[in-house]
């Protein structure tokens, strides 16, 4: 199981070196730990920043649930996507605008076939907006199907 709240650093996250900008550690307002963020003033429209979480020891032919907190704050701040390494082309999850600045929970079911997913990538694509940020926190991978709310 993976449990990454970023309060103890960045777990096994790797910044992609082929992208346009890095995600940064940001302080939570409550002063309680950190989260990863892309502020709106970083980069230009359509620029991408990718954070990759390397997964080890996932069992083939089993199910996992990726649960994470995210927020898209600010007008036209951009998009947040999640990719699994086994299906590089299409995102398995995408969100483009927040209704407000609250943190929300995302859940993604990962079914392991014979080949296992060995990484999860959070990709931020910059929008036109110059205020706000895209944030990710509390990334947890648990075995089994995703729980109902």
Core attributes:
5-stranded antiparallel β-sheet; 149 residues; globular; 6-stranded antiparallel β-sheet; Jelly Rolls; mainly beta
Structural overview:
InterPro entries: ConA-like_dom_sf (IPR013320), MAM_dom (IPR000998), MAM_domain-containing (IPR051560). This is EGFL6 protein. Residues 2-148 form the MAM domain. The model has no long low-confidence stretch (mean pLDDT 85). It contains no helices and eleven strands. Helix content is 0%, strand content 48%. It has a single domain (2-143), classed as Jelly Rolls. With 149 residues, the protein is mainly β. The strands form two sheets. Strands 1, 3, 4, 6, 9 and 11 form a six-stranded antiparallel beta sheet that branches. Strands 2-5-10-7-8 form a five-stranded antiparallel beta sheet, with no helix packed on it. It is globular and about 45 Å long. It starts with a strand and ends in a 6-residue tail after the last strand.
Poorly predicted runs are none
Tally of helical segments: 0
Radius of gyration: 15 Å
Distance between the termini: 20 Å
Strand-residue proportion = over 45%
How much helix, percentage-wise, in residues? under 10%
What top-tier CATH class fits best? Mainly Beta
> Could you say which overall geometry the principal axes of the C-alpha atoms support?
globular
What class do helices, strands and sheet pairing give? mainly beta
Q: Give me the CATH fold name.
A: Jelly Rolls
CATH architecture heading? Sandwich
Largest sheet: 6 strands, antiparallel
